[in-house]
Amino acid sequence: MKCNSCWRELEGRAVSTTCGHLLCTEDANKILNNDAACPICDQVLSKSLVKPVEINPNDEWINMAMAGISPQILMKSAYRSVMFFTGQRELEMQYKMNRIVAQCRQKCESMQEKFTEKLEQLHAAYQKMAKRCQMMEQEIESLSKDKQELQEKFSEKARQKRKLDEMYDQLRSEYESNKRSAIQPANNFFSRNEPDLFSNPAATMMDNRDPIRKDWTVFTPSTPGPREDIWPARQNSSNSGPFEIRGGSPANQAAMPVDVGNRRIGSVLPLELALATPQLLRVFIWLFS
């Protein structure tokens, strides 16, 4: 059995109330001294409503207390004793349940406080992330505008580059055309094979004499007047060899008039003679020396 107020295990004497509750002597004295009520049913207690009882009576007390009582009264007393014991067990179970419920309620309140704090933290983090997302959206929008502007600038620069490339290609083609047109007149000159005067001068020049003289009209300037007046024709004698030159050399001829010499050296020389190579000049000197 336990006290219905402090719920300590009862030993020895206890106090029973008319409302069917059991108290320890300490709690019963406190209630009676303060004119308080029962802690279970809130009934006001007095000394006439309480009775001291033995929790664990000995056999002698039991025999003396039950002596002279009829069986009907004993059975009725036993029934009330069983009902009292059952009520005490129910009160004990209810107390335990109330205590467990109180503990669970306390734990739930503590967990609710923690969860409320966590929820507030999550809500603050959510608001922070929402603001950050909003800032990121604004930044993305700004970057998109910058990207569009850069794409437009790049397109403009690419168009200008293509235009400059076209102008460069056009100028280069004009330059190449002008270069070809400048080089082309030099390629229009009449070219002929020139003899090698230094490998075997005697044989080579004598063998190539006729072709050179046949091709003389290409390089000889057209001087006014008959040719015999300037260089008279050669007259080969019977004793002269095939390579003998007498009257045909300019050194053996008579002095020419000044005006004739001026005509030979004047500006009537064609461009082909002005562009003659040094080897050809050496051939002229050898022929007319």
Sum this structure up briefly.
This protein is mainly alpha-helical and 289 residues long.
User: pLDDT average, as an integer?
Assistant: 73
Helix amount, in percent?
55-70%
Number of strands: 3
β-strand percent reads under 5%
Structural class: mainly alpha
Helix-strand pattern: EEHEHHHHHHHH
Q: Characterize the biggest β-sheet.
A: 3 strands, antiparallel
Any overview of this molecule?
Among the domains are: 67 residues, 2-Layer Sandwich (Herpes Virus-1), CATH 3.30.40; 70 residues, no CATH class. It is built from nine helices and three strands; from the N terminus they run ββαβαααααααα. About 22% of the residues have low confidence. 5% of the residues are buried. With 289 residues, the protein is mostly helical.
Descriptors:
289 residues; mainly alpha; Herpes Virus-1; three-stranded antiparallel beta sheet; 9 helices; 3 strands; RING-type domain-containing protein; Znf_RING; coiled coil; HEI10-like
Helix-strand blueprint:
Layout: E1 13-17, E2 22-23, H1 25-33, E3 50-54, H2 59-66, H3 71-187, H4 201-207, H5 209-214, H6 216-219, H7 258-265, H8 271-274, H9 278-287
